[in-house]
Recover the amino acids of this structure.
């Protein structure tokens, strides 16, 4: 069965520091992987997606993620945090075992950025 | 503007009083889905629809109903709401009949059942 684990429900970084949000997935077949961001009182918007092309995926706002099959991981990084990056981030997986009909989300990681 | 529109955005109701949350998309997407978001649990899928008149259960369908009579609309119906359905609800859509690309989300409907 598909599942997604996000390590750390809260992450706090200084402005300008590296952002690293961790995501591990469980999937029996090559999956589609996504990172979404949710700003306060808003819906989710796509940051980036992995669809079996390049393993290093670049997204919006300077974020990127690397698909590592051997580690079943899809960690999200950004070299230098901005105050505007403060939000909740969700990792999600969709795969053929679920008929690509289900998007399974992790529990989310709330990122705080302090001056 | 391409968007998914949900109504109402906020609703307080009482146990047992039937309610409907509407969802409409103007992107001609085949696939639509409802999620609920609860703290510490992320988003969980309630129901999804791959096209008109085609719907199926997600992971937490109990207490909910849906219908897909038109391509653009996918209402969520709570026949007899209970306090454990207090949550933040999101409707989403995507082109095609499966989630291989971006899901477009509405802004959410916050429901409180007393």
């Amino acid at each position: 069965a598909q599942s997604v684990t996000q390590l750390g429900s809260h992450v706090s970084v200084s402005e300008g520091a590296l952002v690293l949000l961790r995501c591990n997935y469980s999937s029996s077949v090559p999956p589609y992987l996504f990172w979404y961001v949710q700003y306060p009182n808003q819906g989710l918007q796509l940051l980036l997606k992995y669809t079996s092309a390049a393993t290093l995926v670049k997204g919006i706002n300077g974020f990127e993620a690397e698909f590592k099959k051997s580690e079943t991981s899809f960690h999200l990084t950004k070299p230098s945090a901005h105050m505007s990056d403060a939000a909740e981030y969700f990792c999600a997986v969709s795969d053929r075992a679920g008929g690509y009909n289900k998007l399974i989300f992790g529990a989310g990681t709330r990122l705080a950025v302090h001056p | 503007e391409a968007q998914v529109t949900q109504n109402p955005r906020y609703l307080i109701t009482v146990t047992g009083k039937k309610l409907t949350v509407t969802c409409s998309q103007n992107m001609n997407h085949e696939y639509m889905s409802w999620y609920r978001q609860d703290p510490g649990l992320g988003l969980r899928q309630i129901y999804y629809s791959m096209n008109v008149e085609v719907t199926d259960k997600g992971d937490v369908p109990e207490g909910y109903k849906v219908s897909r009579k038109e391509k653009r609309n996918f209402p969520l119906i709570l026949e007899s709401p209970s306090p454990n359905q207090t949550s933040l609800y999101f409707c989403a859509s995507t082109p095609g009949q499966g989630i291989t690309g971006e899901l477009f989300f509405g802004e959410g409907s916050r429901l409180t059942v007393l």
